[in-house]
Each structure stands twice: as structure tokens, then as C-alpha cells.
Design brief:
The complex is a heterotrimer.
Chain A (H helix, E strand, L loop, with lengths): L6 H9 L3 H16 L4 H24 L7 H16 L6 H23 L4 H21 L1 H4 L24 H23 L1 H11 L1 H6 L4 H27 L9 H14 L5 H20 L4 H15 L1 H26 L1
Helix pairs in contact in A: 2-8, 3-8, 3-11, 3-12, 3-13, 4-5, 4-6, 4-11, 5-11, 8-11, 9-11, 12-13, 13-14, 14-15
Chain B lengths: L1 H17 L11 E8 L6 H18 L2 E2 L2 E9 L4 H13 L5 E4 L3 H14 L3 E3 L14 E3 L4 H14 L4 E7 L2 H16 L3 E8 L7 H10 L3 E5 L5 H10 L8 E5 L5 H4 L10 E4 L8 H14 L5 H20 L5 H8 L3 E4 L2 E5 L6 E13 L2 E13 L2 H4 L2
Parallel strand pairs in B: 1-3, 1-4, 4-5, 5-6, 7-8, 7-9, 9-10, 10-11
Antiparallel strand pairs in B: 2-3, 11-14, 12-13, 13-14, 14-15
Chain C lengths: L1 H31 L6 H17 L5 H22 L9 H23 L15 E4 L2 E4 H23 L1 H11 L1 H6 L4 H27 L5 H16 L5 H20 L7 H12 L12
Antiparallel strand pairs in C: 1-2
The chains are: A mainly alpha, B alpha/beta, C mainly alpha.
Amino acid sequence: MSADHGVGEVSLRRARWGHGETAFWLIAIAAIFVFSDRYLILTEMAWLGLFALSLDLILGYAGIVSLGHAAFFGVGAYAAGLLAVHGIVKEPILALVVAGCAAMVLGFATSFLVIRGSELSQLMVTLGIALLLRELANKFSDITGGFDGLQGIVIDPILGLFSFDIFGKVGFIYCLVVLFVLFLLARLIVHSPFGLSLRAIRNNPLRAAAIGIPVNRRLIAIYTLSAFYAGIAGALFTQTTALASLDVFSFERSADLLLVLVIGGAGYLYGGLIGAVVFRVLQDMFSSWTPQFWQFWIGLVLVLIVLIGRERMYRGVMWLPRLAMRRMTSLSRSAS
Amino acid sequence: MSIRQKTLLRVAAAGLLLGASALAAQAQDTVKIGLIVPMTGGQASTGKQIDNAVKLYMQQHGDTVAGKKIEVILKDDAAVPDNTKRLAQELIVNDKVNIIAGFGVTPAAFAAAPLATQAKVPEVVMAAGTSVITEKSPYIVRTSFTLGQSSTIIGDWAVKNGIKKVATLTSDYAPGHDALKFFKEHFTAGGGQIVEEVKVPLANPDFAPFLQRMKDAKPDAMFVFVPAGQGGNFMKQYAERGLDKSGIKVIGPGDVMDDDLLNGMGDSALGAVTAHIYSAAHPSQVNKDFVAAYKKAYNQRPGFMAVGGYDGIHLIYAALQKTGGKADGDSLIAAMKGMAWESPRGPISIDPETRDIVQNVYIRKVEKKDGELYNVEFETFKDVKDPGKTKK
Amino acid sequence: MTALLTILFDGVAYGMLLFVLSCGLAVTLGLMNFVNLAHGAFAMAGGYICAVLVNQSGVPFFVALPMAFIASALIGLVMEQTLYKHLYHRNPLDQVLFTIGLVFMAVTVVDYIMGSSQIFIHLPAMLEGQFNIFGIGVGRYRLMIIVICGLLTLGIQLTLANTRFGSRLRAAVDDPRAASGLGINVPQVFALTFAFGSGLAGLGGALGAEILGLDPYFPLKFMIYFLIVVTVGGSQTITGPFLASLLLGVADVAGKYYVPKLGAFVIYTVMIVILIWRPNGLFGRVAQR
């Protein structure tokens, strides 16, 4: 990003769909066929990626930090669960939207508390809200099932056609499609004038206000949207696992989410998705290697990422594939 | 920025490829057991005791039964139910396990239940204690205990022993509510009176204000249920507040006096009366051998979670013996039903109708033996079934 | 009335404990602008060191306490010199990632060495039980906490206000560049302060084992509480977190005593209300942007 180019030009270039992006989604689709024995963990990556995307919307684009995003995830999860248990909305996609809206309402209501204050108080207010919700869900155990979790969740087939199978194939494809659609929407939004104004606010709220951007209203809007995304992620979680228990609100879930996004890098939409894949792969690798002490290795990786620096680390990781690529191109050149 | 983005995208692709897991080759003559327990997080000590006990049993009894090699695959679910579900599913579908076992908390046991039914794989519950678990699938068998078993017995005992007024302090989550409900039913039916009822938040660093309420209520005894692990903290503060000297006794199900922690609690625990299924001081040869072997292997006293794991793996061994090595779900469950054996905790059996455990419940008092604290059993209630089901 | 005073006493003791535990975090945050989520790990280290000294080596409790302080301070100093020092100017999110990583590692290492069960420190008999003053129940152990923490707070306050080191420290907080221009060795001030904060945490861990319990997950379990104290108190002064700790301690204990049904909600609600009322903490100055 050099200042020589006009802002409009830069943002236009960014908005263009790149080859890397095509490759990313092709690989995601390929995963359906390649990793047919790991659908469940792929599904987890998909909803975690969506969840991280929702945090990226506020953190990467508007500069709002949150340590309580699980609040919206949890509301979405319980909403989807309750809709299914009581048979209010049977069709999963419709239920997804309703659950997302439930989280959105909460997001709108709490946005007023969050957007003011320093980063630290944002962290703590969001965290406090999530923990309060967890306690509420525990108190109203006749509605939520309390600590044991919501019982009797049965999810109907999607559109009445595709029912969820034990291998999780349908679940994964479903999550992937939802993720893709919402990703496109998010991409549209962040590259729109609205998205650009958010970035202006993130970089300098005072200046943004001075050029006539309604700072608070924009922040409320993106926070509400982010809550909607998180709610959808929660609903996907419930629909694919048929579970909703108190830990959807837990501090660990919010904290892990922040880790996921920071690993992948905030502010370019793919960070959350990549972070989700990396985090889950690491977790799965370490915990099947040493079920008791895997946290140590995760911790070590986090520490190393920071010490070495993300950029340098990725360069290291990409060294071998790049070398292979270079060899390939030079080979093909010499052959022709 | 844009170069970095592209690089990252490529990294993601590499990551996806790395995520592949090798499909374990399935040999005909092994029986695989997927052991899913919390090995990290707040419930880690539960998982470790179970894992230890299973390893100990396999050391003692070898790893072949009825010509089959037993292979245990340990997985950590950190007591989070969606992890449990994913791990159980992957174990069943990919690793082709014949049995899933473990389950540190009730939601985890619930999460795996539909998979057990769908795949016809026995689910051996070694820790979780909510009554209804075994009703969630016809393939669930339990070798731990239910809170009803110990809570009703202590209620009856309190009535018989002249305790009239009781204040209760229970953790505010499902097992706590279970314990309270069963105790209250039996205690008030016998003419007892509950003078104060306090529910303590699960994540609770300081018991002081709740204990002060107990003290103000001036009961004859206080009924306590806190999850395994918080018992030590509780007793420390109980003594600190001078409740031991004011004559308010502690009664309750035995979780609060877990053998695992008992010795660290100090003399304030002396005299506490609890009803439970296992004490490390149980005076049988089987138990003496078990405790000695466990201490030798892990330099630690086994608690009731360890016994749940020890009996769980024994049940699997015995069932395989009985089926002659046939390891399909239906034969195993059929073999497990009605199985009876001598466990370190005493004689136990599996109820053929409910697949739940039937066992003796002992009333114990904390006493000092050879400079260490033990729950010494002084009264036995024989063959107690889960009261949550006998009522129906 | 006496019940009220007993509760007040318990609340003050609890608050004092919270203060000693989170004081170091407030300092690192206010002073170096460093988000040290691994703060609880130092507290845990102090607690375990004290427990091993008392239970296994038979060191008297009152000797083990200062040793826990010194040991944690040394660990803090080493960590500051080798790791933290390089991260002061990094983006706060990287700091979060780094310190959470440290917490995970600390948790597993302690779990590996000491086992995952809770452990207790054997206390001398004189600290057990309660005595009565005019009908008010006074716990001996809690009284000791109040005395120790009260003296510490006084000491810290006097050091900051009256000593040369204190004025250097304050100068370094206000403007590190100007301070180093005046010949103050700012990195050294930072290192010493970090070590002292870690030491305090270690002492708090040792003192708190009796009341809060001690197991390998201590740093994760109480991270939230430390953060609440620092956020509510503001990280610019020492008085802020001190008063915030007292307020939260008393509110939590009193809330649980008088309305036990809402026990779990009190501390979070108090925090949210205060932060909405004063977004930079009760005693925080206006954020410097």
C-alpha cells in the first residue's frame, strides 16, 4: 500500500477477485472428495472460519476488539436448537436466518455499550456480556436444559431434500455453501463505500468524523452485522452437531476465536478462514499425538509465531512449495 | 499486503493437505476401544484417573482376551460435548472402534449417545453421573454411579440418626440439582426440615459468603455437593469459618470427600459423614491390592473416578470373554447385562433392565489411620439401584 | 449487624487478595502498555513454590512466603530479559497471542510436574479458625491477608511517592522518551518493575491458594478476575486497582451473601455498569490516543 496510488485505485485493485482466491475455494471444494473421512473436523473449520470472519468484520475493519463474541455464537446456537426442538421453524436454512437475526438483535442492543471506551474496556464489556448470558442460560434451565445442554434436537433435512448423515458429508457441504455465500456478502460490504468508511474510522475516528462520516452509526451497523454472522456460525454449529450446551458461551470459545483470527491475520477476510484451518489442524495433530499435553505444543507454536514473526514464518513454510514451482516452470521452459 | 494475502492463501492450501490423517489398517483380531475423557481443562483429573486405571488394569491382566488383542485409543475432549461427539464419530467411522468408553461429564455422554445407537457400538460410561444417561441409548452401560444412589441413602441415614434441621449447599448445575432433589425427597419424607438452601455458582473461587449463610441458619448438619476437585477448597473454608467447632456436621454424597484430595484437606475434614460407593479404605483384599498397585504405579491414592475406569475396562474384558471374542455391539451389550463381579468398591452388577450399575452404598466417616485421612465405612446399604429409574 | 461486619471483613480480605494478585498486571499494562495475560502463571508459580517448600521441604509458612515472592520475581526478571523485552512495541494482538501461548505452556508444564489435582499448603495451626471480637467472626487467615496486603500497599504507595526509584518510574510511565533523555535508564526501570510485579503475583498466589484453590489451570481460571480489576480500576495509578479490588471484593461477597440466587451475576454486572459509566475505569484518566 503506497501512498502514491489513489485510494480509489488501490481499493479497486483489492476488490478484484484474485487467482489465489479461486484456488482457495477450489481447494475447499476439493476437500469434499479428498478428506472424506474427516468431514466433522472440516465442518468445524467451516463454522469456526465463519465465526472468525464475523470477528474480522469488527476487528479488522472497524477496530473494535471483542473477547465475548461467543455471546452471539451462543445465542445463535441456542436459537437454532430451540427452533428445532419446539418445531417452530423446521427447515434448517430458514432456521439459520432466524437464529442469525436473534443474535443480530442482541448485537444491536449491546453495540451501544461496546463502541465507546478504550480497547481494554471493550474487551471486558464484551466478555462480561458473554459470561452473563452463560449464567442466564444456566439459571433458566427449564428452557435451555442448563448444564446438561438442550435435549432432543433433531434437525430436519435441508430444503426437505438432504438429511444430515453420520459421516457429516451433507453437514460439511451445507456449512461450506453458507460460508461461501456469507463470505461473498462480506466481501461486497467491505469493498463498498460503507466498508471504506469503516476503515477510515479504524485508522482515525476523529478525522473520519471531520469528513462527515457518522462514526457511531457506522460502528453500530457493522457490530450488528458481525453479530448476525456469529449467530449464523452458532446455528451451523448446532445444526451440524445437534448440540447446544453452556460451553457455547464460554470464555475459552471467545479466546480461541481471537487466537484463530490473530494467527490468520485480521483485515483481509481470509485471515479467519486460514486461521481456523491452521488452528484446528494443529490442535488435531497435537492432541492425537499426546492427548494429555497437546496444549504445550499449541502454546509453543503461538509463542514462536509471535517471536519469529508471522511473515517470516509463512515465508519459511512456503519455501519448499515455491522451490518446486520454480523448478517446474524452469523445466517446462527448457522443454519447450 | 496483496503478496502476503496470496502467500497466506497458498499456505492454507498446504495446511488442508497436511490435515490428512492416515487411515488405520483394520486388523481382524484386534478389539479397539475408544477412550474419550477430559485430559485437559478443569476436569483433567477425572480423565487422568480413568486413563491411569485402564492402563493399570491392562498391565495386570494383559492385552489379550479370548484370543483378541485389545487396543485402547485415548482421546481428549476437554469435557466439551461437541469435541466428544466429533471424536466419537471419528473413532467409530475411521478407526472402526468396537467400543467407546470414558465420558467425564454428562453432556459428553449425551453427545455420544445417538452415535452409539446409530452405529450399534457400546458406550461404557465411566464417570458421568446423571440418572437419565442410560436411557439415551440401548447401547449405554454405566460403571460409575448415579448421584441418586448416594444422595437418597444419606437422606435416610440423616433421618435415622437424629438430624432434624439441615442446610444445603450444592453447586448450581445439573448434578448438584440432582443430588439436592434426591436428598430432599428422602430427608423431608422422613420428617426432616430444610432450613436453608443455597446454590453455589460452578465457577466459584470463594465459598465464604455461602458458608456464612450456613452458619447463620444454625442447622444440625449441612448437606454438601460440590464437584470432585472443589471439595478440598470447601472443607478448608468450612474449618476457617469455625463451622467444625460450632457443631454443624458435613454430610453429603461422597464427591466432596474424594480420596484423591482427602489427605490434603487437613484435620478439618475429620468426622464428616458421607455416603458413597467407594473408599480407598474399603476393607477387602481386592481393594487392598488395587490401592497398593495404583499407588505403586502412580504414587497417588485412587479415587472413585479411577474405580469407575477400572471397573469399566473389566466389564469390557469380561464381556469379551463371555462372547468368546465376538465384538459386535449387540453381543457385547447382551453379555454385559446382568454381569456381576467383585470390584475394589465391593460386589457390583449391571442391571439387565436399565444397564445401569447396582452396587452397595456405604456410609463413611473421615478418620485418621496411620497419619493419613481415610473415609472409614461403618454402615452398608446393599445392592442399591438408581432411584431415578426404580420410581417409574 | 455483626453479620454485616463479618461479611465486610471477608469482602475486604478477598479484595486485598485480588489486589496483590492483579497489581503487577496493572503495572505492566499501565507502564509498558503490555497486555500480559500470562500474569496468572507467575501467581501459580509462587503458589506451587510455596506449597513444595512447606509441604515437602518443611520450610515454615512465613519463611516460604517471601521465598515465593523472590522466586517469582526472579522468574519474572528472566522472562522479561529474554522474551518480554522484545515485544513491548508489538501490536497488542501479538502480545495477546504470545502471552496466551505462554499460559498454555505453563499450564501443561505444571500439570506434568505436579499433577492435575488441586494441592493445598499445610498451614501452621495459629492461622486456622476464627476468633470473635464483639461478636464479629474474624478469620485468622483472612486477617493475616489483610495485614500483609495492607502493609504491601502502603509500602508500594510510599515507594512510588517518595523514593528516587518511584519518581523515575513515574517519569518513565508519563513519557519514556523524555525520561530516557533525562538520563533515566528506562529499560532497567521496566525490568525491575516487571520483576516486582511478578513477585507480587507469586506472593498473591501463595496467599490465595488457601482461598481460591491451586491447580494447573489457575492462570486461565483467574485471568478474567485480574482483567476485571485492572479494567475497572484503570491502569494509570496504583490506587485505582486497589480501590477497585476492594469494591469488587466486597460487592462479590456481599452480593453472594444477601442474594445468593444472583451470586454469579454480581461481579460481571458491577463491572459492566462501571465500564459503561466510566469507560476508562473508575480512576482512569482519559485515554491517550
